[in-house]
Amino acid sequence: MGTLKIVLTIVDVILAIAIIILFLVQEGNDQGMGVVAGGSSESYYGKAKGRTLDEQLKRWTVICAVLFAIVSVVLYLAVAKAW
């Protein structure tokens, strides 16, 4: 197994573990009946939504998921094409 395949496999496993950890650390998004009753989103939390820890965790989860998909495809091509 070549060096490229070993490095891609290690990066793929690290990204998979990071996605799992980031997903488990996030809080639930249960708003209950507030969604049906038209809960107000103009609070401080609504205005500063992009700066909260939960939003940063969501952003990093998406980034890791995209990187995981790209590395997985490159790893598949490396194995299939025998780079």
What is this structure's SSE topology?
Elements: H1 3-25, H2 44-47, H3 53-80
Write structural notes for this entry.
The chain is mainly α and 83 residues long. It has one domain. Helix content is 66%, strand content 0%. The protein has 3 helices and no strands. It is elongated. The termini are close together. 5% of the residues are buried.
Summarize the structure.
This protein has 83 residues and is an all-alpha fold. Helices cover 66% and strands 0% of the residues.
The amount of beta strand, in percent, is under 5%
- Would you report the number of β strands? 0
Largest sheet: none
How far from one another are the termini? Answer: 10 Å
What's the domain count? 1
Structure keywords:
83 residues; elongated; mainly alpha
